[in-house]
Each structure stands twice: as C-alpha cells, then as structure tokens.
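Human: We require from you a standard protein entry with sequence in single-letter code and fold as tokens, and nothing else.

Assistant:
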Amino acid sequence: MINRDLSFSKLIIKTLFGVICSAILYMIAINAFIHGSKLLTGGIAGVALIFARLFFPESQNIAFGVFYVLINIPLFILAYKKLGKIFAISSMLNVIIASVLISIIPPSFFDFIHLGGDLLTTCLFAGIFTGLSTAVALKFNSSCGGVDIIGAYISEKKDVKIGNYIFFMNALILIAGGFLFKEWVPMLYTAVYIYVTSVVVDMMHKRNNKKLIKIITNKKEELADLLVKNSFHGCTITQGEGAFTKQKRYIIETVVSEYDVKHLLTLIYQTDPDAFTTISNVDMVRGRFYLPPLV
C-alpha cells in the first residue's frame, strides 16, 4: 500500500513538473513571438486569439488568457470522461497556468529578442517553442488543451501520430482567421508555424511510434520471460542457424512502443551480454497491440 502511494505521488510530482515546464514554454511562444506579430496560433488557442484581437485589441494578452480557459472547458470534460482523470486535470492546470503567465507577463518583457520583424524567423521560433510545450505536456501525461486533447483522443482511438491531427485541425482555424482579418500573408507564415509545431511534436512525442526488436540469443527462455514481464507485449521465438558458425540460435521478435526501447535494451544486455539485437521502425500494426491508456 505504501509503495503504491509513493508511486502515485511520484507520478503527480512528475506530471506537475511537466505541466509547469510546458506552460512556461507556451507562454514564451505566445508573448515573445505571436503577440506583436500578425501571426495566429492554431486550434482553440487560435480561436481565443481571434476573439481577443477582435474584441479587446488593446489588451490582447489578458483577453487571450481568459478566452483560452473558457473555450477549453468542454474539452476538459471530454478528456475527463474519455482519456483519464489525471490527464484531464493536468491539462486544465496547464491551460490555467499558461493563461495566467500570458496575462501577467507583458510581451514587452521579451523586447530583448530582436528578430528585426522577420516573420519567417518569428514563426520558426514560435513553432519550436509551441511544439516543445505540447511534446513536454504529452510526455508527462498532460496536454496544452484545445486540439491537443482532440488529437490525443483521436490518436488513442486510431493509433496514429498525434501531430498529423493537430496540423489539420489547426489549418481550419488558420483559414477562418484569413477570412476574418483579410490578411493572407501572415496566415501563410502561420501555416509554417503550425507545420513546425506538428513536426516538433511528432519528433518528441513517441507514444504512438512502434519499434521491432529482434534478438538473436542462446537464452530464449530468460529473454522471452523478461520481455513478457517488463512490457505489455508478447514475443515470437523462431530457431535459426549461424551461417558462419553453424550453431543453432534462437530469434526473438517483439513490437513495442518507442518509449519502451531504452529500458528493454538495458534489461536484455543485463540478461545476455552476448545477444545480437536489432531495432527497426514499424510503419503499421494490424492485430492486437496493447497501448497503456492515459490515466
């Protein structure tokens, strides 16, 4: 019981750490790069920014923070019911902390960042910081709210990379912003910003990336038991023969989440230092593949 409580406490602390880091990164993306330019953000944040610019042009950062929280409320409910309680609560915390930081830290705080009005450089930096914010949040069982929650929900159901869904949903907001503000050049740069964000997310968020681990070993029983006990996946064992040594060897194959690879490799070589192991990308899986649900 004590160990279980300690594990839960560690999960909460790690999640809170990730939420704070994510919120700070997102605040930098918005206040340092988005405010002050004519760029939009994507998704729900884009909707909040459109409202802020339309109705409160003199206090955009404060209005954005308020709208961002309010519009996210239905999505927090979706996350709570469908994705996991900790995920929903941490996402709500993330949005609230980010909104408060965006509201109380003025964009002028970042005047020391001189980009010379270069929109391309601005959108690249904005995309990197937003992508890092989203990836850090997802890594620590949270999200930045908005389309991140929708993307996580679809990704869990369809088992695809989350960045693709975020990109397409953000693009819809981009088109709406273009029609409302009648300024298509900033919207084109915003598309670059959204694309950079999705690339960074897919590079760093590896939950839905899969790897094939192939092990050639003499210790089939030990390694097979190790893989079954330390991952959520089974494995397949076949017998082979070395072309040079003519010795009988066993080939163990398993498909795992990329998050599991480093830990499993350590265990494999602790059990059999002489094992020959290869890791390869898996583009698609059909059949039973267990992915632990968000909590």
